[in-house]
């Protein structure tokens, strides 16, 4: 789950797990959240994240807020994103 705890909405939200798996949602409103199963995250060649064989080491969220400023949140190990 990704929560937007700010008082401005986010749009074009990209979520990266372990740098290789990604998901996207159009928007998360201020105070809102989005929930997705790890199995919904896909690598560039279509492989899905297998939570039985992989652990989550990093999560990066990138978006643009309602004023046009970039948003970047990171958790876990250093990320290339």
CATH superfamily (homologous) name: Domain of unknown function DUF5300
- Give the number of helices: 0
CATH architectural category: Sandwich
Name the structural class.
mainly beta
Instruction: Quickly count the domains.
Output: 1
Number of strands: 6
Helix content: under 10%
- The CA-CA distance between the termini, in Å, is 19 Å
In the CATH scheme, what's the topology name?
Immunoglobulin-like
> What proportion of the residues form beta strands (DSSP E)?
35-45%
Order of helices and strands: EEEEEE
Explain this structure to me?
The protein has a single domain, classed as Immunoglobulin-like (Sandwich). 0% of the residues lie in helices and 43% in strands. The protein has no helices and 6 strands. The strands form 2 sheets. A 4-stranded antiparallel β-sheet has the order 3-2-5-6, with no helix packed on it. Strands 1-4 form a two-stranded antiparallel ribbon. Strand 5 and strand 6 form a beta hairpin.
Outline of this structure?
The protein is an all-beta fold and 81 residues long. The protein has strands at residues 2-3, 10-17, 21-28, 33-34, 58-65, 70-76.
What does the secondary structure layout of this molecule look like, with pairings?
Layout: E1 2-3, E2 10-17, E3 21-28, E4 33-34, E5 58-65, E6 70-76
Antiparallel strand pairs: 1-4, 2-3, 2-5, 5-6
